[in-house]
């Protein structure tokens, strides 16, 4: 086991895996661009193809979590809820505390066959991130600048287009709007106090506008809301860099299902329902911190082989020519070629590290609360 852990931490292996992800991602983005000709002819065919192309990219990240690091994901929920997974359009409400919370969500999506159809209300800055933002663009992800006056038309139009989506869709919302930090939590609770709302210990005050708007726009399509509360055993603080290094984590996810009929239609009452939900999420986190587990029965969905097989396909396709090229460079003895190849490796490693940096808590998130006069919805 120690030998395997040492191999996983080797920079050259990580660089080769990063090479496979980046180059396969560029190929997938090019294929997605080619499918645009289908949009005016057969929109549903365009969507089905892009669901599968995006799956081929996202599943490589899921493979890192499932097979490379061996991270375990345990669900705390009832069997009736599990029986509905992958059989309906839903909105997912997930707490935003960890660097890899999105990856744990994608893992559950993959295990129930909805990874390709997963959606998110994403911040506009992510659209500019190579591979991730480009893939999301072709998937009709709704991007917003988190300024309602500017976002209103874009959000309504983007969500409206998804009403007839042909694949089962899990639409992720981070209602807190940004990742949890102590500074943001302090400011958020000041806002809660000024509005007469109960204090939260483990979450930021939810921003209700995104939830109420999404629920209203997808009415008739979305059948349920899944409230997901994520935490990690032994007070672990997981990172994507830790996953890349092969570090194993143990994720626990409490999942509660609410039918759309249970949620008030009136916007103000719906917002109140969301605030109450976050008070319940806070109580769940309190239980977890005291007992080391969430209440209720557990389900451990088995990992599927497709993420590993997909990665092996791309690795076989892309690494053979790379290794042959590297061998040719070394054998040639040309200083110019060798220096050029080393520069290529340095640039590639920097690019991959920057992609990983997109998930890091200290480098991401909004300037929450920096403007004291800023109105929070």
UniProtKB/TrEMBL annotation:
Superkingdom, taxonomy of origin: Eukaryota
Keywords carried by this UniProt record: Acyltransferase, Lipid biosynthesis, Lipid metabolism, Membrane, Phospholipid biosynthesis, Phospholipid metabolism, Transferase, Transmembrane, Transmembrane helix
GO CC aspect terms: endomembrane system; endoplasmic reticulum
GO BP term, pick one: phospholipid biosynthetic process
GO molecular function: 1-acylglycerol-3-phosphate O-acyltransferase activity
Pfam family for this entry, one: Acyltransferase
Residue ranges of the TM segments: 12-39, 311-330, 336-356
Residue ranges annotated for the Phospholipid/glycerol acyltransferase domain, each copy included: 90-212
Family statement: Belongs to the 1-acyl-sn-glycerol-3-phosphate acyltransferase family.
PANTHER family: 1-ACYL-SN-GLYCEROL-3-PHOSPHATE ACYLTRANSFERASE GAMMA, 1-ACYLGLYCEROL-3-PHOSPHATE ACYLTRANSFERASE-RELATED
Name recorded for this polypeptide: 1-acylglycerol-3-phosphate O-acyltransferase 3
Organism of provenance: Oryzias latipes (Japanese rice fish)
Gene name tied to this protein: AGPAT3
């Amino acid at each position: 086991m120690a030998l395997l852990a040492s191999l996983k931490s080797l920079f050259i292996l990580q660089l080769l895996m990063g090479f496979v992800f980046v180059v396969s991602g560029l190929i997938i983005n090019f294929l997605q661009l080619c499918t645009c000709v289908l949009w005016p002819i057969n929109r549903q065919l365009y969507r089905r193809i892009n669901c599968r192309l995006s799956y081929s990219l996202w599943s490589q990240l899921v493979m890192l979590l499932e097979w490379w690091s061996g991270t375990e994901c345990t669900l705390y929920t009832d069997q009736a809820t599990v029986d509905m997974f992958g059989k309906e359009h839903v909105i997912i409400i997930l707490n935003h505390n960890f660097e890899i919370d999105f990856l744990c969500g994608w893992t559950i999506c993959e295990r129930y066959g909805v990874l390709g159809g997963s959606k998110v209300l994403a911040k506009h800055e992510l659209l500019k991130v190579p591979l991730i933002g480009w893939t999301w663009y072709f998937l009709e992800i709704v991007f917003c600048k988190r300024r309602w006056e500017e976002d209103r038309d874009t959000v309504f139009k983007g969500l409206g287009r998804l009403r007839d989506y042909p694949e089962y869709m899990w639409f992720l919302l981070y209602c807190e709007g940004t990742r949890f930090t102590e500074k943001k939590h302090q400011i958020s609770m000041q806002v809660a106090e000024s509005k007469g709302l109960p204090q939260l210990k483990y979450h930021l005050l939810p921003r209700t506008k995104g939830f109420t708007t999404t629920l209203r726009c997808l009415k008739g399509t979305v059948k349920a809301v899944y409230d997901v509360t994520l935490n990690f055993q032994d007070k672990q603080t997981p990172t994507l860099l830790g996953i890349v290094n092969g570090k194993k984590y143990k994720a626990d996810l409490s999942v509660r299902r609410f039918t759309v009929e249970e949620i008030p239609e009136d916007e103000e009452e719906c917002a109140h329902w969301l605030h109450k939900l976050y008070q319940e999420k806070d109580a769940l986190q309190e239980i977890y911190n005291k007992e080391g587990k969430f209440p209720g029965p557990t389900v451990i969905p088995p990992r599927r082989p497709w993420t590993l097989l997909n990665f092996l396909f791309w690795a076989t396709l892309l690494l053979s020519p790379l290794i042959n090229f590297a061998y040719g460079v070394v054998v040639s003895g040309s200083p110019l070629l060798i220096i050029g190849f080393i520069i290529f490796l340095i640039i590639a490693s920097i690019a991959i590290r920057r992609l990983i940096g997109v998930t890091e808590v200290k480098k991401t998130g909004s300037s929450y609360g920096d403007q004291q006069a800023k109105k929070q919805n």
